[in-house]
Amino acid sequence: LKVEQLALNFVRYMSGIASNVAKFNLELANLDTELLYSGHAVPGLEDFAAMAFLHGGGILHEENKNYCVFTSNTIARFESIDDAIKAVKEIDKSIKPIVEVNDQAEFEEALFSNASVIRLNTSKEQVIKNCSIINNDKKILELQSEIELKRLRLTAKLGYKYIIIPSLSDAAKSLPVD
What we know:
It is a single chain. The protein has helices at 2-27, 46-55, 72-76, 81-91, 104-111, 125-135, 149-156, 167-170; strands spanning 34-35, 67-70, 96-101, 117-121, 140-144, 162-164. The longest helix is centred in the N-terminal third of the chain and has 26 residues, at 2-27. By secondary structure, it is of the alpha/beta class. Helix content is 47%, strand content 14%.
């Protein structure tokens, strides 16, 4: 009986992720925006959560598998974003940099760097809009934010290629192990 309950909880967890992703993915129909897996999941079940995310219609960023996310903490160790990118490229030229920013000032700095992808990590609607306007299709944009379903389509139309919603893969019914 305990094994059966464990199996049911596991199936509920996986189907919850796939169902949530599918529901959000429907809002993106006919747009050039994709839901990107965040990597947030129940510890130990990350691979299963990623598989469920895929089955719901999301993507795992496979075309950018060899990427490196540069956060403000990483960049602070160097003179500039370009210096941080250069240091990593000296180690491995195949690495594709993604610069993660948290506000408009950081976004503007990243816009004039050698990074081809900028990940905006904010829930502030005005910052999301402003950064899209400032970008004007210069860089590939990712948005990491807890966007509500009713705002997803409108946000995607601003020009974000990828949207990362961490709760899609970690807020499904979690697996109780007792």
